[in-house]
Amino acid sequence: MDSVLETKICDYVESHSGRLFGHIRELVRRDSQNTPPVGREAEAQHYLATILEDCGWQPDLYELDSVPGLRQHPLFFGSREYAGRPNLEARRKGAGGGRSLLLSGHADTVPRGTQPWTRDAFGGEIEGNRLYGRGSNDMKAGLAINAFIAEAVESLGVRLGGDLIFESVVDEEFGGVNGTLAGRLRGCLADGAILSEPSFLRICPAQRGGRVAHITLSASGGILSEGQYPAGVIDQVTHLLNRVGTFAAARRRAAPPHALYAGAVDPVPVSVTKIITAPWGSSEPITTPEECRIELYWQAMPGETQHDVEAGFFAWFDETVAQARHLFPRKPVVEFPIRFLPGSAIPADHPLVTGLAACASEVLGAVPPVTGIEGPCDMFVFHEFGIPAALWGPRGGNTHAADEYVELDSVIAAAKTLLVFVARWCGVV
Fold first, then answer.
1. Which of 8, 52, 93, 147 has a Cα at 20 to 30 A from 101?
2. Against a cut of 0.90, is the pTM above it?
């Protein structure tokens, strides 16, 4: 490709960086929290549609339930409600002779949460190199980059050989991916896809899988009784938590190693993410708790099946209960609140990966790491439909936590790289 055009592309991103940052701020200011079974993505989706329309594209906002066969598909999960939560798709037809590329992202964010923020969660405040707000890092910066690229292609007058497709889906968080599935079933397919998740300027052609289990423990509580003092569920909780390390060790032994996670300290981590017994405060009686809910989250490698992952969990869980049956007068209840998310990967030497790496090397001045992302996402759906896909996006912090932020210099680097890659992958005529 003409190096003069690539220089022009990079100069354009630098000179229009204020507009790019403005898109991120405007998206952050549009509350798009996902709180299953409902979500608030509509306003953000309409904002993105306006950007595309203003630069001459024809955005298509469509309801998920308009997609034939969606709820009947094996990958569809849960009793989610999608009225007023449209997906967004727009396509710029190529002149011919090039490969098509899909730039995809999700408009929903996790909830603000009850953690204390020191900044407005929906303010889009900029301090130094950071832009703060819920979703700034995951993944409104990535969506803004994708929309900015659509603008740049038009402003620069770049004639692409292959189709360039913009997509923003709903309901990715909480193991959703129904929005991503809807796009594929509707026919939004391509020769390659880049998901602009916050990959920290790494190319990630692999994702880990993930499983969440809710374990409910119950026993008699109280504060006074004849004879033995009532322990409630505390001894059960202590026993189970002491056994989590055993489960983690079993996962590390059972999970097949994947080359893109060779450098990971713990390729398949196991975490206790919530422990709840009773509300706090003087409005509640002082008593040993009769119930405790524990949320356990663990990850999986590409190649592991849901059957094997869950069989390993229940083998550990049944053994844990059997070792101390006297502590469990009632059998603990296990529920899986969200779908099983499988690990998935394409080879590190796939042309999508090597091509993107070459672009990033020139922009960054160094070869970017090619590795697996540290958690699950919706990339596996693309792989299931035979679309080679990888993650590429900026750097940030406090993802899913209070004071989430994205680093603005990395936004510029990610945008330059992706815009150069669009030109190379799709071809310029």
1. 8
2. yes
